[in-house]
Write a structure and sequence with these properties.
single chain, 272 residues, Arc Repressor Mutant, subunit A, 10 strands
Length: 272
């Protein structure tokens, strides 16, 4: 894959139904989430069915900034894909007979195939995921894959998607409050029972990474009921266009590329 194609792959668009982002519950590592987002980014808005997506291990590593010379990549990806296949997620499904949403268990992927000799991986997303990922016309969220690739915390992707799903008027600042219990559940961080642990190990690192490596800027205000912290209020805004371009190109460089970036070109034009 050429340098330009690696960049194109990083800048593909991820599209998910808001129900999947705002109402599903699952436990995936940061690497497992990135594998799924990489697959989802290959879906076209015009696709009517899931395809069997094929990619090489070196290709995936190069796009995601993983050391492609590491001899353990095949083993690590094989284990990660197995865990994705073994894990299910709770998500809402409309029951027309009862006129209610019911939580249902879904699988992420169908049977994957890996060729150790060629390093080729073939994966198809599970058919039950179609309502959340295919032919999305309304109530969905989209973003560039690159804004998740430099995240190190699994909570950063979850929070970033949540923020993108509720802040859809890009030019306006938006404020939204969540109870701490509600936010723990949304971020799959319910193991952190105390406020301080949740703030220090899940929410704080996620907010920091989003502010440094994405197109969104978040501030948090914590509210008390009596002596205990019970709520968090997010204020969300979209960063200026030039700042987004700078961050995007900085991520590209950190992940590895020798190609002249758009930010470099803008800087050269400014200095002429």
């Amino acid at each position: 894959m050429s340098e330009e194609k690696y960049l194109d792959a990083r800048h593909k668009t991820v599209r998910k139904a808001n129900e999947l982002i705002q109402r599903s519950r699952f436990d995936l590592t940061i690497q497992q989430q990135k594998i799924l987002l990489y697959l989802i980014s290959h879906i076209s808005p015009y696709d009517e069915d899931f395809k069997e997506y094929e990619f090489s291990i070196p290709e995936f590593c190069k796009v995601c900034g993983i050391d492609e010379t590491n001899g353990k990549n095949y083993k690590n990806l094989k284990e990660a894909i197995k865990e994705i296949a073994d894990k299910s997620l709770w998500a809402p499904r409309w029951n027309p007979k009862r006129n209610v949403y019911e939580e249902t268990l879904y699988r992420w992927i169908e049977k994957p195939y890996m060729d150790e000799n060629s390093g080729i991986i073939r994966i198809k997303l599970d058919n039950d995921m179609k309502p959340f990922l295919l032919q999305l016309k309304q109530n969905f969220t989209q973003y560039e894959l690159i804004f998740t690739l430099y995240f190190k915390s699994k909570y950063s992707i979850r929070l970033y998607e949540l923020v993108k799903s509720i802040h859809f008027h890009e030019m306006e600042e938006y404020t939204r409050a969540y109870t701490l219990d509600e936010l723990r559940k949304l971020l799959d961080a319910e193991t952190y029972k105390t406020f301080q642990h949740f703030k220090d190990r899940a929410l704080g690192p996620a907010v920091k990474e989003i502010n440094e490596h994405s197109d969104k800027q978040i501030t948090c205000e914590f509210k008390k009921t009596g002596r205990a912290y019970t709520d968090v209020v997010f204020t969300i805004r979209t960063k200026p266009t030039l700042e987004v371009i700078r961050i995007r190109d900085q991520i590209d460089k950190e992940l590895g590329t020798d190609q002249l970036s758009l930010w470099d070109q803008l800087e050269e034009a400014r200095l002429v």
